[in-house]
Structure formats: structure tokens, C-alpha cells
């Protein structure tokens, strides 16, 4: 049990590999680099207008994972050659982690209103994400620099256990944060699945549920690695898990938005089915996108034949003539 104690960790020293762990870490680092390149290519292919919280969360998150991955190589895979440049290692690791961990939550938040229309819940989720900067990121940044200091072993020995304790506390906090957002998605989508939906809508919603289950599973796995002091392998796996989560969320959330657009184009756009005046005006005129920037929602609408799931289209969010997913993202990204 002593090997699991945070007081046995030497953050400034080389990692203590178990047999085969260094090879596994190298494999995860290589796969992560590949996924970063692939994800960025897909992002730039999909978004013609590079703006909005969704785009910048994806882009900043993927680039931050790249930064963190370079730090992993210098700190854990080439530690004997790079110990003298520990400030660079610490900077790449901490800045990359601080950005991509927040960006991951913002990606989920930026499309939360597709399935949850309660603005109070959305506001609470945003405040929860914002609070992680002050409760997790800033204290970790304070502890990293003295703990990684290879030129002052006395200072490092004092701060290494503190950083290890902070890592455990931070990982639990981010697991709760991401699990809360993922739980909101799962809860909302399960409610929508009980309504009358077509096969395409059900498949996309089920895929989004599976993605959020994967998010929670990876968070739990990272907690296990942190509590067992597996620093050398935990950082590559954490970096890999975040880029994989970003990749899956990017694909499935885009499908969800595309389903919203296609579902509306198949309808007759009868104004009587939409009761909000701004919606009625938008459907009749298809005014410029600057009039309203709200994104369509999966909403529960009742009619004479029973409950059914409809996608509500605010004013001119989508063009009725757009046929490709990339055009959909061009309007709402």
C-alpha cells in the first residue's frame, strides 16, 4: 500500500516504469499525435466560418493536447536528456492540460442546448466549468513549478507529495464535472428516445449516449491511474483519452446538428406547428442569420396524434437549401 501513497512520489525524477509500460506509453503518444492531426483536418474541412464557442473549444482543445503530448515526450520518454530544461517540460504539460481539460467541458456545454432548453441548467453548467479554473487549475499550476524543479531536490521533495495530492483532488473534480454534463446528455436523450423519432434520429441519439458513457469510463480510468501513482503511463493515457473524446464528440454532435437540419427540410414548414412569433417570422421569411443566432433544439412537441420528437428551428439558423453537413456547420458553427 505504501507504493500508492502520494508521499512516495518524486515528481522531479525519472518515471518508475513497470515492465512494458514505457512501450505502451510511447504507443499512446504516437496514436495521440495521429488523432490530433486527423481531428484538426476534419475540423478545418467542416468549418468554413471559423468562429463560435464550439469551433474554438475543439481547436484549442486539440492544439493543447498537442502541446501536452510534446511535454510528455520531454518529461517521461526522454527525461534523462531533458532534465535540465524542466521549466519547458512543466510549462508544456501544465498549460496543455489546463486548456484541454477546460475545452473538453466547453465542447459538451456548447451543444448542450440542443437537448436541454432550460437556460438555468445551462447557466449552472457554465458556472461549474468556470469554477474549475479557480479550484483545480490555479492551485495545480502553483504546485507544479517547485515540484518539477530538478535543480533543487529539497524543494521538489517537499512539493511532490503536495502536487500528487492535488492531482488526485483535481482528477476527482474533473470526473464529477464531466460526468455531470454527460449525465445531463444521457438523461435528456433517454427522455427523447421515448418519443416518436425516426431511425436516423434514434441512431444519432444512441451514439451520443454511448459517447458520453465512454467519457465517464475514461474519467474513472484516469482516477485509478492517478491513485496508483502511475505517472509515466497515466499522462499518455490521459492525453489519448481526451483527444479520443474530442474526436467522438465532434463526429456525433455534428451528426446531431445535421439530423436537426434534415428533419426540418423534410417537414412542410407549416407555420401553425410553431407557436413562437419569432419562429413563425423566421420560417416565412428566412431572414439573415444575424437576426438570431440561437441553435436548434430537440424539443418535445404535442399534437393531435400523440407526442413526437421535433427539432425546433429558430429564425434562419439553417438554410433550407443546404444539403451537406459542412454547410450546416457553416451556418451554426
Can you describe what's shown?
With 333 residues, this protein is mainly alpha-helical. The chain is 70% helix and 4% strand. The chain contains 10 helices and 2 strands. Strand 1 and strand 2 (306-312) form a beta hairpin. The longest helix has 41 residues, at 153-193. The termini are far apart.
Lay out the secondary structure:
Blueprint: H1 21-46, H2 53-77, H3 79-82, H4 86-110, H5 119-147, H6 153-193, H7 199-227, H8 231-266, H9 277-285, E1 297-303, E2 306-312, H10 325-332
Antiparallel strand pairs: 1-2
Helix pairs in contact: 1-2, 1-8, 2-4, 2-8, 4-5, 4-6, 4-8, 5-6, 6-7, 7-8
In short:
This protein has 333 residues and is mainly alpha-helical. It is built from ten helices and two strands; from the N terminus they run αααααααααββα.
Q: Helix share of residues?
A: 55-70%
End-to-end Cα distance, whole Å, is 49 Å
Output mean pLDDT.
76
**Oligomer classification:** single chain
The rounded Rg comes to 23 Å
> pLDDT below 50 for ≥5 consecutive residues: which ranges?
264-333
If strands are numbered along the chain, what order do they take across the biggest sheet?
1-2
Largest sheet: 2 strands, antiparallel
- Coarse morphology: elongated
Structural class: mainly alpha
Proportion in β-strands: under 5%
Q: Tell me the series of helices and strands, N- to C-terminal.
A: HHHHHHHHHEEH
> Helix tally?
10
Instruction: Find the count of extended strands (DSSP E, 2+ residues).
Output: 2
